[in-house]
Every structure is written in C-alpha cells, then in structure tokens.
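quick one before i forget lol
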Amino acid sequence: MAVGERFLKFRCTGCGNCCKEPLLPLNDVDLSRLVSHTGESPLSIVKWVTRHEIAMEDEPEAFVRLRQGKRVMVLGHRRGRCRYLGKDDRCTVYDHRPTGCQVFPFDPQFKRDGGLKRLTLIQATDCLYALDGQNDVEGIRQMRERHDTDQHAYYDRVAEWNRDQQRRKRKGEHVGTPRAFLKFLGVRFPSS
C-alpha cells in the first residue's frame, strides 16, 4: 500500500476555497484553451505577478522577462476569487479549466514501474474535502503527465523568450511586453 493511498478517496465538497486564495500559474496551452472557449482576450484572462506575490522559488523557469520586470503568468482573479468561479462556488469553465486545476489537489509520486509510491494533497488553501470519493491511480497519473508535459514545453518557450529579451537588452532595445510574449507563444487574440 502506497503512503497516503487513503487520499484516493478524496471528494471535493464544493467549498470553492481552492479557487479563492491561491494563484494558479498558467501555461500557453491552458490560456489558449480558455481564449477559445470564452472568446476573451488573453490579456484580460491573465495577471502578471512578481516573485513577492507568488511562491515560485522551486520553479524559477516560470518567470518571464518583460518590460516591467520578471513576472509569472497566472489566472486572473476578480474580487478575491478566480474570474471563472461562479456565485454558487462552481467553475463556469470546468471542462476547459487549466490542467493545474485538473490535477489539484493531488501531488503524487510514482515508482519506476508506474505504481503509486506516495500521494499527498497540495496544501495551498483550507480545503474542506471528504474521504468518501473514488479516484483511480491511472487517471491521476495521466493528468499529472499531461500537466507536466505542457509545463515543461511552456518553460522551454519561456527560456527561449528570456534569452531573446536578454539579447535585446544588451543591444539597447526594449524588452518585450506581455502582448508580445503571448503572440510569441502563438496565443490567439480574438478579433473585436
């Protein structure tokens, strides 16, 4: 039996706390999916935060070099909650939500053979969960792999952007804007 296997019985009680307090870093795949679904401008969906606004010490590759300094792209909030959290504390973009939301609250570790080694819950907020649900290891593994694949590809693109911005700065040119970064990623801007 894996350490923490009891958390496979995790069930969301719909308290909405995970969509109120923590900031959720986005990648280009997440953002493109939200833009396609909502028709909103990517600039209205994201918020750019500094290292003082989000704990990302273990992921320095998430910081994008922009004209205003190094920033992390996160899902924007309105009135202290995710912009897509409805008044009933339900997600209004549930089928199109970012993979970071989809893997939450699970933080799994797997053995080399693919078996579950350890399962913990991410402690980003006061989660009022129950332990009477049913989650399968394979589903958690697939979602974690998808999330990690998207994140690593995004971090590679951020590194490419940051190298180019460093070159621009050395030449005395302006560093790029958030709009330029999103266009570099290939994120579509809906026509007005």
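fyi Residues 78 and 84 are 9 Å apart (CA to CA).
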